[in-house]
TrEMBL record, chain A:
Keyword presence, Flavoprotein: yes
InterPro entries given in the database record: Acyl-CoA_Oxase/DH_mid-dom (IPR006091), Acyl-CoA_Oxase/DH_mid-dom_sf (IPR046373), AcylCo_DH-like_C (IPR036250), AcylCo_DH/oxidase_C (IPR009075), AcylCoA_DH/ox_N (IPR013786), AcylCoA_DH/ox_N_sf (IPR037069), AcylCoA_DH/oxidase_NM_dom_sf (IPR009100), Mycobact_Acyl-CoA_DH (IPR052161)
GO cellular component: plasma membrane
Similarity comment text for this entry: Belongs to the acyl-CoA dehydrogenase family.
Keyword S-adenosyl-L-methionine carried by entry: no
Domain Acyl-CoA oxidase/dehydrogenase middle residue range list: 127-209
PANTHER family linked: ACYL-COA DEHYDROGENASE, ACYL-COA DEHYDROGENASE FADE29
The protein's name: Acyl-CoA dehydrogenase
Cofactor dependency: FAD
Domain called Acyl-CoA dehydrogenase/oxidase N-terminal: residue spans: 7-122
Entry keywords, A to Z: FAD, Flavoprotein, Oxidoreductase
Domain of life: Bacteria
Automatic annotation (TrEMBL), chain B:
A Pfam family matched in the record: Acyl-CoA_dh_1
Protein name in UniProt: Acyl-CoA dehydrogenase
GO molecular function: acyl-CoA dehydrogenase activity; flavin adenine dinucleotide binding
Family stated for the protein in its record: Belongs to the acyl-CoA dehydrogenase family.
Key words, A-Z: FAD, Flavoprotein, Oxidoreductase
Keyword Flavoprotein: yes
Cofactor(s) for this UniProt protein: FAD
Organism: Novosphingobium mathurense
Residue span, Acyl-CoA dehydrogenase/oxidase N-terminal domain: 6-117
Acyl-CoA dehydrogenase/oxidase C-terminal domain span: 211-343
Keyword GTP-binding: no
């Protein structure tokens, strides 16, 4: 067991830090530290391309596909330095962290050649077409239908909560390709271009006032027959494997955002004197401990991950971070007091901490609610009997 | 960076888990509870047969080298069986002597402690007064104090060794809630004290003690989960195993979420101490407070989820619950450790 980094890794850190800080102090200083995913979209697409041009976009990927074959330690270092430099959240995180690794794992050589350069190159933004109005926690209840017409899949249905669909170039869609099938069987995993007449996107305004996610309507939307990842009717396995990537290295970058939020809470507490209050100090200490345990938990699960993927302990990660962040949002409002309830200007727009407070109410819902997480932990992690299913 | 056990560490883990599972049985632990809280036969075979009692102590001092990670592995396995052994005394006093003792003190005490011939206890003792090399005062809450051959006392700016046989030392043992590690009050009246090098002794004692307690708590918490999972698949109500009900399984899931964090905490702290990382103090305070709370929470769930049988003397649930209770209050409670975390992250309160 070893936590320290080698001299070689520290040299890598210096190189990454130097480049990132140079960018954030120079050409891209106008987008430093933007936490959300919906403002200054065009500039942030330029940032994606800049990362790619200097081979920093997908460092964990094989060199062949635009990565650096970076070791786990290097990926950890890069995530740390990325946040330290104040670089903005990755607007193509769904492409880089979810679609890309899934295509690398399941794609044919031709599919890799078709989709990966756009992701690694920062030119194609991706979104995720999983949830539907009647397929939320019960994700396998997908009703969106796909059938082959000549050389094309024709897809009809409705997706919902599709983050970033309003400016994405591609969507991966879980659709029912086998007529009469039910549940996780008979689904296929399709990669579809967004810019076509059969796809309409309507933004949904969230409780924090922003519109990061959307309803996505598919009406005879099309993609080539060979735009299917994995086997026909076996899309559920691909969809679930993708969720495994969500618990991988990408968590480290997310943690750095959490670090910034906790630091902002500490700063606010220092500024208004709450930092002297023993109860507040206990809560900040708990948050500090929780954040560190998230970091070392992620390093432990990544270090322990073998070729077969992450071990059972990784199942606990989602509920852990989501609950931590919701608690942090509440702590932030306690520290800010009533000042936290007043926006800076006339618009219904929130600065970092009040926005964390509001936004974090979604963290315990999206990507599997805390209740679904507990089912997964109990059934897959602890081997308890499955919840009885209804007949729908 | 490789935050996973090496092959050697995985082997040690397997060896000690098997050793404690086979030997530290409920029957033997309960016998030890009636005999002052130490299973002397178990401790002797741990020290003599496994050769792991010298962990964290350099080979030139008679130890086996290795470090806090290996100590944590041992304590985790011991804790999973609520073993009645003086491991905490060794982890605190042994570390203090190894780090802050002179050559003569090391020669006199480390050998017998590692071989198991001598049992050590350590305690925080701010009320002790020293005059001409002689100590006076009262030290409350000394774990395994009534069976110790050697004491290490840590004051505000000094640390001492005192032999139990010293004429100026007397011990009163107390019936204690956790009978596997009963507390005693030690009274000193002009006892012969040998000074340790204070700063290194205190630092090593804290690191060894907090890691030992945190790791014991981790092992104990994991055992409460494993045993409750087992029970929940066997016990039927309403025609179903009770582990199939969400009200039940969600509580087990919450236990696993806490335990996995506790595991990260223990090995983060152990690694940070072994590597001399700047964040070692943050890690130690985090680990002690988080793991103790986790153990207590899980042991409480174990009782609740077993229903009536979990409240009986016959069932082992109370052994876990009582050990968890004692770990929570021992060597600084959760609020104290979290205030240290606050000091390290926010700074002093004004």
């Amino acid at each position: 067991m070893k936590l320290g980094f080698s001299a070689e890794d520290e040299a890598f850190r210096a190189e990454a830090a130097d480049w990132l800080q140079g960018q954030m102090a120079g050409e891209f200083r106008d987008i430093v530290g933007i936490p959300n995913l919906v403002s200054k979209v065009e500039r942030r697409k330029e940032w994606e391309r800049q990362l790619a041009a200097h081979q920093w976009s997908c460092i964990g990927w094989p060199v062949e596909w635009g990565g650096r074959d970076a070791t786990l330690a290097q990926q950890v270092i890069f995530a740390e330095e990325y946040a330290r430099a104040g670089a903005p959240n990755r607007i193509n995180h769904i492409g880089v962290e979810l679609a890309g690794p899934t295509i690398l794992a399941f794609g044919t050589q031709e599919q890799k050649a078709r989709y990966l350069p756009g992701i690694a190159g920062g030119t194609q933004i991706w979104c995720q077409g999983y949830s539907e109005p009647n397929a939320g926690s019960d994700l396998a209840n997908v009703k969106t239908k796909a059938h082959l017409e000549g050389n094309e899949w024709v897809v009809t249905g409705q997706k919902v909560w599709t983050s970033l669909a309003h400016f994405s170039d591609y969507i991966f869609v879980v659709a029912r390709s086998e007529e009469g099938s039910k549940g996780p069987k008979g689904l296929s995993f399709l990669l579809m271009a967004m810019d076509q007449p059969g796809i309409e996107v309507r933004p949904i305004r969230q409780m924090n006032g922003e519109a990061e996610f959307n309803e996505t309507f598919l009406d005879a939307a099309r993609c080539p027959a060979d735009a299917m990842l994995g086997e026909r009717g076996q899309g559920w396995g691909v969809a679930m494997a993708l969720l495994g990537f969500e618990r991988g290295v990408s968590t480290l970058a997310q943690q750095m955002q959490f670090r910034n939020e906790l630091d902002a809470v500490i700063e606010a507490a220092r500024a208004n004197g709450k930092a002297n209050d023993p109860v507040t100090r206990q809560k900040i200490a708990r948050a500090e401990i929780g954040l560190n345990l998230m970091r070392y938990g992620a390093l432990r699960m990544l270090s322990n991950a073998d070729a077969a993927g992450l071990d059972g302990a990784a199942l606990t990660y989602k509920i852990q971070w989501a609950t931590w962040r919701r608690d942090l949002g509440e702590l932030a409002m306690e520290v800010l007091g009533q000042a936290g309830e007043i926006a800076a200007g006339e618009a219904y727009e929130w600065s970092l901490l009040p926005n964390t407070f509001l936004f974090s109410r979604s963290d315990t819902i999206y990507g599997g609610t805390n209740q679904i997480q507990r089912n997964l932990i109990a059934e897959r992690g602890l081997g308890l009997p499955r919840e009885p299913r209804g007949n729908s | 960076m490789e935050f996973a056990f090496t092959e050697e560490q995985a082997m040690i883990a397997q060896t000690v888990q098997t050793f404690f599972a086979e030997n530290a049985t409920s029957e033997r632990t309960r016998a030890a509870m009636e005999a002052g809280g130490i299973d002397r036969e178990l401790w002797a075979s741990f020290c003599e047969e496994l050769g792991l009692s010298g962990i964290g102590i350099a080979e030139e001092d008679g130890g086996v080298g290795l470090g806090m990670v290996e100590l944590a592995i041992v304590a985790e396995a011991a804790g999973s069986q609520v073993s009645a052994i003086p491991l905490l005394g060794l982890a605190t006093a042994g570390q203090a002597i190894a780090a802050g003792g002179n050559i003569a003190q090391k020669e006199q005490w480390l050998g017998p402690l590692i071989s198991g011939e001598a049992i050590a206890a350590a305690a925080y003792a701010p009320a002790l007064k020293v005059e001409g090399g002689r100590l006076s005062g009262t030290v409350p809450f000394v774990a395994h104090g009534s069976l110790a051959d050697l004491f290490v006392f840590v004051g505000e700016d000094a640390a001492w060794l005192v032999a139990a046989e010293d004429a100026g030392l007397s011990v009163v043992s107390h019936t204690t809630m956790d009978q596997t590690r009963p507390l005693a009050t030690v009274t000193l009246e002009g006892a012969n004290a040998q000074a340790l090098n204070f700063a290194p002794a205190r630092e090593a004692l804290h690191a060894g003690g907090w890691i030992c307690l945190a790791a014991e708590a981790l092992g104990g918490a994991q055992a409460t989960l494993d045993r409750t999972v087992q029970y929940s698949t066997e016990r039927m109500q309403f025609g179903r195993p009770i582990g199939s009900f969400q009200a039940y399984k969600h509580r087990l899931a919450d236990m696993m979420v806490l335990i996995e964090q506790a595991r990260s905490a223990v090995y983060w702290a152990a690694c940070a101490v072994d590597e001399g990382a700047p964040e070692a103090q943050l890690a130690l305070h985090s680990a002690k407070s988080f793991c103790a709370d986790t153990y207590f929470e899980c042991a409480g769930h174990m009782i609740q989820l077993h229903g009536g049988i979990g409240f009986t003397w016959e069932h082992d649930a109370h052994l876990f619950f009582k050990r968890a209770t004692s770990i929570r209050s021992m060597m600084g409670d959760g609020d104290w450790h979290r205030e240290q975390v606050a000091r390290l992250t926010i700074g002093e309160a004004s």
